[in-house]
C-alpha cells in the first residue's frame, strides 16, 4: 500500500506534466518560445530594415509609436520579423497633390527594392515581373487599406516609397489573413522539444519543428485568395481567385502558387496533424480534387483551381495517399464514404496503366519538377505501391473485402516486379527506369519509407547510397541536377530513420534545414521551396522558373518534412489506426539526443511521450494516451542494454541483445530500462 501510494505520487507528477491537453491544447512549456506564429492577427513592423533618402522618424513606425515623414524619392523598408501575409493598412498625410506612394513586398532580404516586389505572378529573368503596388496622386489623407485583390500572401519586408512630394505615414500594420478560421495562431494541439547536442545551436531541431508548423499555417488560406489565372499582367499581381469547393483550404505556398497541390500535401498534412491538428483545410482541398475528377477517365487534376493543371500520374496518386492520411489522422469515415465512388474510380485509373510487365507505364508526366519520370519509372511505381497498400486498408472501412484483397494482392505483385526491374545489385540502390543507371533521391527514399524494400540490409544500403549525394547543405538531387529539394529531402530524412540511421537523419536536418533557417538569403522563419546546390535562391532556374530567383517561395509546406519526422521518429509517436485507436511508440534513441518530448491530439484526445537516456544504455519512457486505445512500445535490437525493465512499477524482462516490444493499453505508463547494471 505504501509502495502504491509512493508510486501514485510519482505518477501524478508525470501526469501533471504529460496530460496538459486542456481544451485540446498542447501543454505549455519552454518549447513555446520557439513557436514563431504571431500573438495577434494584426501585426506591426518589428524593426526598420533600412531607409534611403530623407526619412524622419522611421523608428516610430515600429510597434505603432508615431509618424514617419518621407521626402519625395525616399523610402523606408519595414521588417515584420517573420514571414507574414495579409492586407496592409496605414495612415497617410500628404499635403502636395502630386505626392504618391508605392509599396513593394519581399520574402527574401535579397530582393528589397523600391521599384519591384519579389515575383509571384510569373517567373521573369529580370526578377521584376510583379512590380509595385501604386497608390496614385492625389493621396487622400487618412486611413488607407490595400485592395483585397492585391493581397501578398507571403512577405517579411515592406518598402514604402514616396514620390512627387513629401508623404507622412503612421500606424502601418498587416492584417494576417491566413488561418482565417482560427483566432489564436499559437494555439497548437501538438508540441515537440529536444536538446540537440550535436548542433552548434542546441535548439535547432525544436526551431525546425516550429518553422515547419508555422510554414503550413501560412499556407492555410481563405477560399477566395488564390493566384489569378491567367496571371496578372507585368507590373501587377492578383490573389483573388477561388481555390476550391470550400475554405479554409491548404495551398502549396504563402506567396505562390497559392493553389492546392496534392503532392505537397504528402508532407504538409502530417505537419499539420502533429502541430495544429487543424485538418479542415485538408478535407476541403481533397474534396476539391475529387469534385474535379474526369467522369469519363477517372483522372484527377494535378492541382486545384484556378490552375487546374492536368496530366500528372504521381500527383493523381498523391490525392489518393492524402485520402488515407486524412482518414488516419481524423477517423472521418463519413467523408471517406462520400468520396468513395470517386476514389475507387481514381485507383482504377492508375491500375489501368499497369501493363503486362506488371509496372505502371507513367504517361501523365508532370511531377514535382524532377526530370525523366516517364514509362516504367521507379518513383511513379513506388507511389503506386503506397496507393495500393493504403487503398487496401481504406476498403476495409467501406466493408469492401473483395476490393481490399485485390488491391493487397496487386501491391504484393508490384513490389516483386519493382525489385526485379529497378534494383541494381552492384550499386545497391534502385535505378530510375530500366534504361538508366541514374539512382534518384525520390524513388530510393520512397522505396524505404513505403516498404518496397525486401530486407533490412537493402534499407541500410540505400541509406548509405543516398549520402553519396550530400554536400555541406544537403542532398544534390540526381533527378534534378544542381538542386537541393527540401521536399524530397523530407522523405530522405524518413528513409534514414527507417534504416535505423538516426544520427544520419538528424545530420541531414541540421544541414538542409539549418541552412534554410540561417542563410541571409532566406526569410529566416518559414521554409524555402528549394534552392540550388550552392545555396542560391535560383531554384529551378533551368526547369520552369526562367532563371528568376525572386520567384522562389520562402514558405512552402512541402519543405516541412522534419516536423512530422521529429514527432514520428525522433520522439517515436505514431498512430497506426484512425485517430490513434492504435498507436506505436518507437523512439529513435540512437541519434545522439539525450531525450525528446512532445505529442499531438486526435479526436480521441491527447497523445504524449517523453523519453530520456538514463545511465549506461538505459532509457526512461513516459507515455500518455487516451483510455480505450491500444499501443506498443517498440525498440530495435541493441537500442537499450541489459535484460530488465520496470513497467509501471512491475518488473519485466527481455532477451539480451534483442528488440523490445511491450503491448500497452491507453492511459499513463512509465517504462524504465536500467541498462547495464
Ligand atoms: C549576406 O551576407 C553576405 C556576406 O556577408 C553579404 O555579402 C550579402 O550582401 C548578404 N546578403 C543579404 C541579402 O543581406
Ligand atoms: C529599380 O531601382 C534600382 C535601384 O534600387 C535601379 O538600379 C533599377 O534600374 C530600377 N529599375 C527600374 C526598372 O526602374
Ligand atoms: C520583366 O520581364 C517580363 C517578362 O519578360 C516582362 O513582361 C516585363 O515587362 C519585364 N519587366 C520590366 C520592369 O522590365
Ligand atoms: C480580381 O481582381 C481583379 C482586379 O480588381 C478583377 O479584375 C478580377 O475580376 C477579380 N477576379 C475575381 C475572380 O474576382
Ligand atoms: C464525384 O465525381 C463527380 C464527377 O464524376 C462529381 O460531380 C462529384 O462532385 C464527385 N463527388 C465527390 C464527393 O467528390
Ligand atoms: C529514364 O531515366 C533517365 C534518368 O532519370 C531519364 O533521363 C529518362 O528520360 C528516363 N526515361 C523515360 C522514358 O522517362
Ligand atoms: C508507355 O505508353 C506510351 C504511350 O502509349 C508508349 O509510347 C510507351 O512505349 C510506353 N512505355 C513502355 C515502357 O511501355
Ligand atoms: C461495415 O460493417 C459494419 C459491421 O457490420 C457496420 O457497422 C458498418 O456500418 C459498415 N460500414 C459500411 C460503410 O457499410
Ligand atoms: C489487379 O491487377 C490486375 C493486373 O494488372 C488488373 O487486371 C486488376 O484490375 C487489378 N485489380 C484491381 C482491383 O485494381
Ligand atoms: C513490409 O512489407 C512486408 C511484405 O513485403 C510485410 O511483411 C511487412 O509487414 C511490411 N512492413 C510494414 C512496416 O508494413
Ligand atoms: C550558384 O549556382 C547558380 C546556379 O548554378 C549559379 O548561377 C551561381 O553563379 C552560383 N553562385 C555562386 C556564388 O557560385
UniProtKB/TrEMBL annotation:
<dbReference type="GO" id="GO:0005975">
    <property type="term" value="P:carbohydrate metabolic process"/>
</dbReference>
<feature type="domain" description="Alpha-L-rhamnosidase six-hairpin glycosidase">
    <location>
        <begin position="249"/>
        <end position="465"/>
    </location>
</feature>
<dbReference type="GO" id="GO:0016787">
    <property type="term" value="F:hydrolase activity"/>
</dbReference>
<dbReference type="InterPro" id="IPR012341">
    <property type="entry name" value="6hp_glycosidase-like_sf"/>
</dbReference>
<feature type="signal peptide">
    <location>
        <begin position="1"/>
        <end position="24"/>
    </location>
</feature>
<dbReference type="Pfam" id="PF17389">
    <property type="entry name" value="Bac_rhamnosid6H"/>
</dbReference>
<dbReference type="InterPro" id="IPR035398">
    <property type="entry name" value="Bac_rhamnosid_C"/>
</dbReference>
<dbReference type="InterPro" id="IPR035396">
    <property type="entry name" value="Bac_rhamnosid6H"/>
</dbReference>
<keyword id="KW-0378">Hydrolase</keyword>
<protein>
    <submittedName>
        <fullName>Glycoside hydrolase family 78 protein</fullName>
    </submittedName>
</protein>
<keyword id="KW-0732">Signal</keyword>
<feature type="domain" description="Alpha-L-rhamnosidase C-terminal">
    <location>
        <begin position="572"/>
        <end position="641"/>
    </location>
</feature>
<dbReference type="Pfam" id="PF17390">
    <property type="entry name" value="Bac_rhamnosid_C"/>
</dbReference>
<dbReference type="InterPro" id="IPR008928">
    <property type="entry name" value="6-hairpin_glycosidase_sf"/>
</dbReference>
